[in-house]
Specification:
Radius of gyration: 18 Å
Protein name: Glutathione S-transferase
Structural class: alpha+beta
Shape: globular
Largest sheet: 4 strands, mixed
Strand order of the largest sheet: 2-1-3-4
Oligomer: single chain
Length: about 240
């Protein structure tokens, strides 16, 4: 297991930042955090860490130096899905990816389903540019891939990068529905919340409840701050 310093540059409200942090916490991998405010991005971030200015980013292999000025010798990786795979490969003992090629492929397929069929329509719905029906279709697509046993992980008997990918969107979907927060028509959030309580979504809800109670979820999430930020953003826009 590597002992090289790993720095996570994150914006805590971001689901993509949380994906990476969940994996790090669940695998008990040492790391340090440097917060990057996407609403007021510092100039050094694009110049020294990521030219596009997106998060999350990790630097790996640098000495314990100023995170605002990582050396050129440090490995810099962006895109949350790429980072998850890197962490899983760097720490195979973590179980973040199964050992068997078929099982690994199934985890990756679940990740792709979450990204394309749930996250994309949910973000569109949140921004007032998508439909609730598409979100529910995404929930069904993900649910079809979950195990039948209540409280199990997304795949197999251990926490994988599939859980780290799914949990941030489960959290945010639940919060936006419960508090009716988004650019969608007023009341549609509550309508979505009611739809998800129907028996046809029971497996998805059981999984959600189990994951939301995990310590890693609680440690990497600030619901009050997210609600405050969303209320400010949607009121402004």
């Amino acid at each position: 297991m590597s002992t090289e310093l790993l720095t996570l540059y994150r914006f805590k409200p971001s689901p993509y930042s949380q994906k990476v942090e969940l994996a790090l916490v669940e695998a008990n991998i040492p790391y340090r955090i440097h917060e990057v405010d996407l609403l007021n991005k510092p100039e050094w971030f694009a110049a020294k860490v990521h030219p596009v200015g997106k998060v999350p980013v990790i630097t790996y292999g640098a000495a314990d130096t100023d995170p605002t000025n990582p050396p050129d010798s440090a490995v810099k990786l962006a895109e949350s899905s790429v980072i998850l795979e890197f962490i899983a490969d760097l720490h195979p003992e973590s179980g973040l990816l199964p050992k068997h090629p078929v099982a690994r492929a199934k985890v990756r397929f679940l990740n792709e389903t979450v990204s394309s069929k749930l996250a994309t329509p949910w973000v569109a719905f949140l921004r007032g540019a998508g439909s609730m029906d598409d979100v529910l279709k995404g929930v069904e697509a993900v649910q079809d891939l979950l195990p039948d046993a209540a409280g199990k992980f997304a795949f197999g008997d251990t926490y994988t990068i599939a859980d780290a990918t799914l949990v941030p969107f489960v959290l945010r979907l639940t919060i936006s529905a419960k508090h009716d927060l988004g650019k969608f028509t007023t009341g549609e959030g509550h309508q979505l919340e009611a739809e998800l309580q129907k028996p046809k979504y029971a497996k998805f809800i059981q999984y959600s409840h189990a994951m939301l109670e995990r310590q890693s979820t609680k440690d990497t999430h600030d619901e009050e701050e997210l609600i405050r930020l969303w209320r400010k953003f949607f009121a402004k826009n």
